[in-house]
């Protein structure tokens, strides 16, 4: 049975570099809602057909945005706002303004790739990561969630499709942005030209990278002592920039390696794994090699993470979803930053120095309850492109039709997200 969105007006801000938000808007319109897209760049318009609803191009400066948005909200009277992530500058300003409106504010819905993967889309309100409602809501629930919630689905992925959509978005911005949106600036640390140059370099080095990944996998398999994993995140990811330790990722990496060298058992091995979507410009392998740990550390670029996870004694992370994956597998996990899963009973408490010699596994019952809580309340099946996009759009529209979850005090969220 299709949920109804009669008398609802939904405003969409920036979304994935795909037609996903247009699919969601059409699904909302089928349910009786009015939809409007605020576009900040030509790429936003590129993936917003007329059938998705009205399009409003915003061409002001960042300093103009809060006042312009307030006037827009007073004129349009939306009930809901939908955005991809909470880290982009305009999304952060939007959420700050909405918090100031109190109970009069429309509900902000934040979507992202699911914490639980594959085939699930995250749906939160008011913030994610270090500003998420999830830790406080889980505590308030008493961790007594029944059932497992919606399962994910293995929607076929395609890096070529993802890359083509991304190139189309940024190419539109590069060609038409200076004329049509003169104040728009890319939100990513690495602009598209630099980003694509990195990927071209990775492509040219593919045979060498594959050979190195094979050697790294062999070294990990042959190691007889405890193995610890440190999965690198994207240095420009807002989870690192906004909810990390306050340090650049390169500094965090060096701190982890120095701590391992000084405090880990002498027969332990540290695996530093590069993020699969890293553009390669940071030269993480070189930084690992120059740390002076010799054969006590392995840099892994490519290949499956399953073998190292299967034999890991523990995982150290800033706030990667691989930390949650480790917890769900029953592995000890130490969190350096702020993460939704940095809760007693889930992560290994104490210092990083103590973790290397005494990693503490999570409580199995609490892990099961937390996973069920996430599935039931914060995920819907689908993906941002490909066959799962239409499925995800329908499921997200249904989620918008449900009452939003309760809002917990901001200072309570702050405490809950801090590592123990």
Alpha plus pi helix count: 17
In percent, how much strand structure appears in the residues? Answer: 5-15%
| Cross-sheet strand order for the largest sheet | 3-2-1-4-5-6-12
Name the poorly predicted regions.
Answer: 411-420
CATH topology of the largest domain: Rossmann fold
SSE string, helices as H and strands as E: EHEHEHEHEEHHHHEHHEHEHEHEHHEHH
Throw out a few tags for this protein.
seven-stranded mixed β-sheet; 2 domains; globular; disordered C terminus; alpha/beta; single chain; Capsular biosynthesis protein; 420 residues; five-stranded parallel β-sheet; Capsule_polysaccharide_synth; Rossmann fold; 12 strands
Structural account:
By secondary structure, this protein is an alpha/beta fold. It has two domains: 190 residues, 3-Layer(aba) Sandwich (Rossmann fold); 177 residues, Rossmann fold. It has 17 helices and twelve strands. Strands 3-2-1-4-5-6-12 form a seven-stranded mixed β-sheet, with helices on both faces. Helix 11 links the parallel strand 8 and strand 9. Helix 1 crosses helix 16 and helix 3 packs across helix 4. One of its GO terms (biological process) is polysaccharide biosynthetic process. This is Capsular biosynthesis protein. InterPro entries: Capsule_polysaccharide_synth (IPR007833).
């Amino acid at each position: 049975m299709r949920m109804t969105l009669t008398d609802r007006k939904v405003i969409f801000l920036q979304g994935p570099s795909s037609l996903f938000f247009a699919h969601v808007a059409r699904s909302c319109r089928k349910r009786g809602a009015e939809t409007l897209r605020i576009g900040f760049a030509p790429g936003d318009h590129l993936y917003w057909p007329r059938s998705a609803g009205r399009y409003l191009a915003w061409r002001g400066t960042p300093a103009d945005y809060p006042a312009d948005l307030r006037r827009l909200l007073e004129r349009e009277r939306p009930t809901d706002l939908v955005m991809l992530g909470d880290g982009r500058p305009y999304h952060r300003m939007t959420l700050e303004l909405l918090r100031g409106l109190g109970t009069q504010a429309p509900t902000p819905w934040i979507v992202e790739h699911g914490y639980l993967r594959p085939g699930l889309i995250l749906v939160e309100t008011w913030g994610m990561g270090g500003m998420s409602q999830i830790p406080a809501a889980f505590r308030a629930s008493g961790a007594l969630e029944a059932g497992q919630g919606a399962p994910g689905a293995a929607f076929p992925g395609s890096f070529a499709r993802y890359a083509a959509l991304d190139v189309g978005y940024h190419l539109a911005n590069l060609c038409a942005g200076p004329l049509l949106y003169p104040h728009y600036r890319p939100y990513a640390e690495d602009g598209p030209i630099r980003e694509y140059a990195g990927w071209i370099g990775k492509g040219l080095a593919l045979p060498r990278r594959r050979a190195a990944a094979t050697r790294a996998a062999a070294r990990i398999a042959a190691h007889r002592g405890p193995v610890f994993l440190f999965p690198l995140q994207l240095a420009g990811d807002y989870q690192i920039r906004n909810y990390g330790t306050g340090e650049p990722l390169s500094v965090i990496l060096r701190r982890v390696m120095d701590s391992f060298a000084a405090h880990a058992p002498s027969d332990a091995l540290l695996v530093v794994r590069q993020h699969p979507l890293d553009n390669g410009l940071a030269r993480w392998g070189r930084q690992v090699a120059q740390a002076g740990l010799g054969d006590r550390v392995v840099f892994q670029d490519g290949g499956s993470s399953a073998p190292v996870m299967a034999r890991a004694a523990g995982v150290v992370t800033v706030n990667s979803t691989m930390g949650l994956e480790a917890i769900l597998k029953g592995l000890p996990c130490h969190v350096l930053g702020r993460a939704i899963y940095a809760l007693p009973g889930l992560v290994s408490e104490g210092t990083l120095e103590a973790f290397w010699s005494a990693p503490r596994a999570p409580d199995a019952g609490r892990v099961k309850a937390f996973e069920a809580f996430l599935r039931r309340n914060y995920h819907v099946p689908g993906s941002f492109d490909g066959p799962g996009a239409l499925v995800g759009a329908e499921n997200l529209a249904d989620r918008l039709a449900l009452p939003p979850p309760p809002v917990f005090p901001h200072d309570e969220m702050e405490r809950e997200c801090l590592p123990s």
